[in-house]
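The data are quoted verbatim for reference:
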Amino acid sequence: MLVVLSSCLSESDHPGNGISLADSMPTDSLLADSLEAVSIPVDSLQLALDSFNLDTVLRNASFSYLIYDVTDDSILAEKDPDLSLVPASTIKLFTSAAALELLGPRSRFRTRLLCDGTIVNGQLKGNLIIKGGGDPTFCFGEQTMNNVFASWANALSTLHVDSVEGDILGDGSIFSSDNIPYTWCWGEINLGYSAAPAGLSINGNLFKLVFDPSRKGWVNPVAGRMNPENPNCRFLNNVVVHEGDKEIYLIGYPTQDEKMIRGTTNAGVTLTEVIGVMHDPALVAAMEFKKKLIEKGIAVSGEALSVNSSDTVSRSDSVNRLKEIAVIWSPTVNSIVYNVNHHSNNFFAEILLKHLGIKKYRSGSTEAGIRAVRSFLQSKGIDLSGFYMYDGSGISRYNSVTARQLVALLKVMQTSPVSENFRSSLSVAGVSGTLGSICTDPEIAGKIHGKSGTMTRIRSYAGYATSPSGHQLIFAIIANNFNCSSLEMRKKMEALLRQL
């Protein structure tokens, strides 16, 4: 059902859209004076919605929308607002809202360097442990990694340690060991936007491999060609030379060190790169730290290992046996949420979801995080009929929400204690973030704050808008399985957003 409250709109709400009756009447001096100021307001939003509803690219699609006028406390327009549809990244709005309220915008996560032994004559007789605290930004980027590990090596030097008679352990056991949400597609789990969350992350859990696509067979990473480096990895080059678009990607089991490089490249290319997902970032962190220690002149007799044996927050290791040597704190949850919504960071969203599981149920699993989000939404009085959540970022095609639920969440967050934090995390149409390239007209830019969602045959938008009359609007629109490109659908939905 489509409901448009056009009677509530005056001609001033739609400047330039009035059609004068006098223009279509016979010239008559008796009528001219009385009809001079009479016009019929044209509801441009209604026209845009009618055009969208009848568009042939939506013939086989499922789509819905809801536009709510906050100022008048009324529904401006709706179509099947209770239809459950795959939202893509707009599901991040639920994850981020729960994170801001339950975790708190000022909360931070720490990564600690610990030891479990004693220092005797410059020798640390025991292990060094990098204890992950679920910081998604830990050692993000090569320069940051070098700075962090160099400062930790200096901290050991300050304690007069010149050798380590033990192992370097990367411990990410604060989260469950099943890092990848089980409903993610096989073809996506090795792609850069699908970095799996981990209790101890490094470089966003991504690596870059530089290789020669013309040399077929196994590629063994050499120094400087894989960053961060993992010498255990091997890659089978199956790239095909093809004139046209270049697309190179990895496939393979997520927990194995061997991956296949597939895709196409142009003839004559001798070096190219591919981005991949680490399956054991705790091990890579331990390797990188061991390498830095040796570089700084601190000998290490043991190995670099990872600790992924526990699915619980509490482990058998007693804190009393461990000595803290150094600690690194993450940016605030507020800053992390900004990256989740403004830049649609999947990795950060999945990390926050696991933290919600710890906060609410003392379990760092995706499933516990989802239960925490659902509990949060129910506490706000949001009807969850038709709401299905399988991850925190929207990569899973098992996710399903309704336009009404998106609008309900956005309405609730207007009166939340963290409302300003939430709103400021959203992209701004025509200005910044994932909405920065739409609605760039000077009269529209900056008047829509929201979140976009995009996957193959999926496009969605939800957020806040200010109408020309000053009314505050909340909107949500979702379309699945349309018969056009994602770019074309973006333009069609942009045409609707312009009318808000």
